[in-house]
Amino acid sequence: AQSVAQPEDQVNVAEGNPLTVKCTYSVSGNPYLFWYVQYPNRGLQFLLKYITGDNLVKGSYGFEAEFNKSQTSFHLKKPSALVSDSALYFCAVRGLDGGGFKTIFGAGTRLFVKA
Amino acid sequence: DAGVIQSPRHEVTEMGQEVTLRCKPISGHNSLFWYRQTMMRGLELLIYFNNNVPIDDSGMPEDRFSAKMPNASFSTLKIQPSEPRDSAVYFCASSRDRVAEQYFGPGTRLTVT
């Protein structure tokens, strides 16, 4: 069965510093990988995805993620954090599971960016 | 585009009552998903439809929950009878196809007393 792990419940970073939010996955076959962000009292918003091709994917709001097949990871990164980046971040994997496509979301990582 | 539309945004009801949550997906999207989010269990996929057909309902917690998609522009999630443990935020999401990114609605916050 496929799974997604976000090993950190919370990440704290100072404004202007680089940030990384970690994600590892397990899936049969080729993975479709996604990052979403959730602000308070809002639905999840799509940030970026990896389907195939270049391992470095660029997305909204200056975020990027690197697909690493050997480490089965898809870490979210941003070179310079903003206070407004503070939110809940979800990694998701979509793949074949039991004969059909399923999407599994990680538990989420709360990012705090301090001014 | 208006995005995914959900109604109501908030619902407070008493245990035993029927609750119906509504969703209008983005026009042209052919996959629709219902999720439940709680602090304890995180984000759970309840059911998803492709081309109005339920594909996977393995996440529906029990027979009290049912979902329908009578046409491409409307879906409902019904809980009958409701229980306090059903209190959560329920999200509807749609995507262009089964592997594309999902677009989430604003959610319905359900409180069952």
If you had to describe this structure to a student in words, what would you say it looks like?
- The complex is a heterodimer of chains A (115) and B (113).
- Chain A is built from no helices and 12 strands.
- Chain A has 115 residues and is mainly beta.
- In chain A, the strands form 3 sheets. In chain A, strands 2, 5, 6, 10, 11 and 12 form a 6-stranded mixed sheet that branches. A 4-stranded antiparallel sheet of chain A has the order 3-9-8-7, with no helix packed on it. Chain A has a two-stranded antiparallel ribbon with strand order 1-4.
- In chain A, a hairpin with a 5-residue loop joins strand 5 (28-38) and strand 6 (44-50).
- Chain A is globular, with a radius of gyration of 14 Å.
- The mean pLDDT of chain A is 92.
- Chain B is mainly beta and 113 residues long.
- Chain B has strands at 5-7, 10-13, 19-24, 31-38, 42-50, 53-56, 65-71, 74-79, 88-95, 102-104, 108-112.
- The mean pLDDT of chain B is 94.
- The A-B interface holds A 32, 34, 36, 42-46, 49, 51, 90, 94, 100-105, 107-108 and B 4, 33, 42-43, 45, 48, 55-56, 91, 93, 98-99, 101-107.
